[in-house]
């Protein structure tokens, strides 16, 4: 569980399991951020803590207040085009959800006047196996894995949540995530 408290450490473990990780900058130096933005054109930012934060796109207006990060190290990543996929693993079971949205962080689309559509999908066997392997490498029986699959089929992994919310996905897709979790805990599934 400790890997969620250090995003850089978790990124290293994610790479070791064969997933791509977006180019990332963790800094409190505004000049480094400006240079990173020149290199990538479109950049997102989020907290480096293990506590939930809202992912946002770095906009022109944000540059005016960039000096404030001197007191708050922040994680910046290249924006990755593609389809968001949330994967829940419960032991050897995999539940994947494709997420279509018109916002940067689909979890907060309603706050930005956006929409989100969730659809249960089947992952290719190789990718499902990698997700199970990643969960196991992190010592997790139950995990929420945030992926993005690019138009050319490259799979990026942003993070693995060791205590994922799942009811939102289950309610919108009908996937039996709770049943799988209860079955595992009861020793029947």
From TrEMBL:
<dbReference type="GO" id="GO:0009432">
    <property type="term" value="P:SOS response"/>
</dbReference>
<dbReference type="Pfam" id="PF08443">
    <property type="entry name" value="RimK"/>
</dbReference>
<dbReference type="InterPro" id="IPR013651">
    <property type="entry name" value="ATP-grasp_RimK-type"/>
</dbReference>
<dbReference type="GO" id="GO:0046872">
    <property type="term" value="F:metal ion binding"/>
</dbReference>
<keyword id="KW-0547">Nucleotide-binding</keyword>
<protein>
    <recommendedName>
        <fullName>ATP-grasp domain-containing protein</fullName>
    </recommendedName>
</protein>
<dbReference type="GO" id="GO:0005524">
    <property type="term" value="F:ATP binding"/>
</dbReference>
<dbReference type="GO" id="GO:0018169">
    <property type="term" value="F:ribosomal S6-glutamic acid ligase activity"/>
</dbReference>
<feature type="domain" description="ATP-grasp">
    <location>
        <begin position="11"/>
        <end position="186"/>
    </location>
</feature>
<dbReference type="InterPro" id="IPR011761">
    <property type="entry name" value="ATP-grasp"/>
</dbReference>
<dbReference type="GO" id="GO:0005737">
    <property type="term" value="C:cytoplasm"/>
</dbReference>
<keyword id="KW-0067">ATP-binding</keyword>
């Amino acid at each position: 569980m400790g890997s969620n408290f250090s995003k850089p450490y978790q990124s290293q473990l994610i790479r070791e399991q064969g997933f791509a990780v977006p180019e990332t900058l963790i800094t409190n130096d505004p000049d480094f951020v400006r240079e990173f933005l020149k290199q990538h054109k479109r950049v997102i930012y989020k907290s480096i803590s293990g506590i939930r934060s809202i992912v946002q796109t770095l906009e022109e207006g944000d540059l005016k207040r960039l000096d404030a990060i001197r007191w708050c190290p922040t994680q910046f990543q290249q924006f990755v085009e593609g389809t968001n996929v949330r994967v829940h693993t419960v032991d050897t079971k995999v539940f994947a959800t494709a997420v279509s949205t018109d916002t940067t962080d689909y979890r907060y689309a309603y706050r930005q006047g956006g929409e989100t559509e969730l659809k249960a999908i089947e992952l290719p066997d190789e990718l499902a196996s990698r997700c199970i392997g990643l969960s196991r490498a992190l010592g997790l029986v139950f995990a929420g894995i945030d992926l993005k699959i690019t138009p050319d089929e490259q799979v990026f992994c942003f993070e693995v949540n060791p205590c994922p919310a799942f009811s939102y996905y289950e309610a919108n897709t009908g996937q039996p995530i709770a049943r799988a979790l209860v079955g595992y805990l009861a020793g029947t599934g």
